[in-house]
């Protein structure tokens, strides 16, 4: 916490604690002195602050990396502020160019509607639905019309737009930039005007768009919002940001056993970062746990607690307990009680083709790599021969620690 700001602006214990909550795990909170004033005013007047998070429904499912900003929303919600979950059904028609080196293809209205239907249901596993305002930016974006859009575009210059890193880099590299892409940050900024936002949250890659909201609010005579950016969560490998394309993610719709086991697979170092960004435990509780581990307690105890907390959030406490028992059972070489049943034909069938057809490996080449690494078992025995062919029969096939299938081959 920036102590000088707190010292220069005498505040109550309540505001001090709210600022500490706001700053937990954040990348940036700008401008911090304005946020302190907003918190103090809210405490004095009893008027909750309006806190906005916009998400474009570009995919139907979200992973726990996406919940980092949702967790921050929940923390601020628990302080009594009004959180607004904004579904960017209009901006999705444009396509967010953030971090892109090429034009993002826009989604169809049908795709957007389908994705939006599942987005809020998933977000509600983190936010309190009873205290969440749900909005769609088509409410105010579509009525703007051509005249309103031209007037909005007059509020920002091309030179300022080209200061944005992805536009600047694409222009220098000679890559095309479509004119409609300039509309995206303008429309996202206009959302803050329409909602009279006091604070907008986003990932670090959204900073330009968040600052656009401040600029446009000033243009329209409003008090500008503060912005809060959260870091991008490292995935299971502890190196790359969590991403489905990198297969280092935990989907919040994954089954409890898989979710629990995946959390346990992260490194002891990454565990503490996940605690800060994903856990609902207080910082004091996390520091106490760290001290216990530093004092000799097995770090696995802390990781188990984190795995159970995350699994319980997206499933239930009972499911988390069952996942813990399932993991213990598997670690002793046991086979889970319920595994997928797969029927295949073509016996005798090569082990690589069998793994691919049973959806235990994405490709035959990946199956061979898994075999080389000793990660494939058939009926409990490790497979070392990539040329192995299985005759007709039923087999329990295991890949890694978590993937199983009972394969009946004919």
What is the architecture of the largest domain at the second tier of CATH?
Answer: 3-Layer(aba) Sandwich
CATH level 1 class label of the largest domain:
Alpha Beta
What's the total count of β strands?
13
Coarse morphology: globular
Helix and strand composition category = alpha/beta
Q: Kindly report the average pLDDT value.
A: 88
Described by strand count, sense and barrel closure, the largest sheet is:
6 strands, mixed
Catalytic activity: tRNA(Tyr) + L-tyrosine + ATP = L-tyrosyl-tRNA(Tyr) + AMP + diphosphate + H(+)
Motif ('HIGH' region): 57-66
Pfam families: S4, tRNA-synt_1b
Subunit structure: Homodimer.
Jot down its keywords.
about 400 residues, alpha/beta, Rossmann fold, Tyrosyl-Transfer RNA Synthetase, Structural Genomics Hypothetical 15.5 Kd Protein In mrcA-pckA Intergenic Region, Chain A, about 15% strand, globular
Describe the overall structure.
- The chain has 410 residues and is an alpha/beta fold.
- It has 3 domains: 228 residues, 3-Layer(aba) Sandwich (Rossmann fold); 76 residues, Tyrosyl-Transfer RNA Synthetase, CATH 1.10.240; 69 residues, Roll (Structural Genomics Hypothetical 15.5 Kd Protein In mrcA-pckA Intergenic Region, Chain A), CATH 3.10.290.
- It is built from 17 helices and 13 strands.
- A 6-stranded mixed beta sheet has the order 1-6-5-2-3-4, sandwiched between helices. It has a 5-stranded mixed beta sheet with strand order 7-13-12-9-10.
- Strand 9 and strand 10 form a beta hairpin.
- Helix 6 crosses helix 9, helix 12 runs parallel beside helix 14 and helix 16 crosses helix 17.
- The protein is globular and about 75 Å long.
């Amino acid at each position: 916490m920036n102590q000088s700001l707190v010292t220069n602006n005498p505040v109550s214990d309540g505001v001090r604690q709210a600022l500490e909550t706001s700053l937990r795990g954040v990348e940036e909170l700008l401008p911090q002195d304005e946020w302190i004033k907003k918190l103090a005013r809210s405490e004095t007047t009893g008027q909750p602050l309006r806190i906005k998070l916009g998400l474009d429904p570009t995919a139907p499912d979200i992973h726990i990396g996406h919940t980092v900003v949702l967790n921050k929303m929940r923390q601020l919600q628990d302080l009594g502020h009004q959180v607004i979950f904004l579904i960017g059904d209009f901006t999705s028609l444009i396509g967010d160019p953030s971090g892109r080196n090429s034009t993002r293809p826009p989604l169809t209205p049908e795709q957007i509607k389908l994705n939006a239907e599942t987005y809020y249901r998933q977000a509600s596993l983190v936010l309190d639905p009873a205290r969440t305002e749900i909005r769609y930016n088509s409410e105010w974006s579509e009525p703007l019309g051509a005249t309103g859009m031209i007037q909005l575009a007059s509020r920002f210059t091309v030179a300022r737009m080209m200061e944005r890193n992805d536009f600047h880099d694409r222009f220098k590299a000679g890559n095309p930039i479509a004119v409609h892409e300039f509309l995206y940050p303008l429309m996202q900024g206009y959302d803050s005007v329409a909602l009279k936002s006091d604070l907008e949250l986003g990932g670090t890659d959204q900073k330009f768009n968040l600052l656009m909201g401040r600029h446009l609010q000033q243009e329209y005579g409003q008090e500008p919002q503060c912005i809060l950016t959260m870091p991008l969560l490292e995935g299971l490998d502890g190196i790359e940001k969590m991403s489905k394309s990198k297969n280092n993610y935990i989907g919040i719709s994954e089954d409890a056993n898989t979710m629990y086991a995946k959390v346990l697979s992260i490194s002891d170092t990454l565990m503490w970062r996940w605690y800060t960004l994903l856990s609902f435990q207080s910082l004091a509780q996390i520091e106490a746990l760290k001290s216990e581990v530093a004092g000799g307690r097995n770090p696995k105890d802390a990781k188990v607690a984190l795995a159970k907390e995350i699994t319980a959030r997206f499933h239930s406490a009972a499911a988390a307990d069952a996942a813990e028992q399932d993991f213990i059972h598997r670690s002793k070489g046991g086979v889970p009680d319920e595994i997928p049943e797969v029927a295949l034909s073509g016996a005798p069938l090569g082990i690589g083709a069998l793994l691919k057809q049973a959806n235990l490996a994405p490709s035959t080449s990946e199956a061979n790599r898994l075999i080389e690494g000793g990660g494939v078992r058939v009926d409990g025995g490790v497979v070392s021969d990539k040329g192995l062919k299985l005759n007709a029969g039923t087999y329990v096939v295991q890949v890694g620690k978590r993937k199983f299938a009972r394969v009946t081959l004919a």
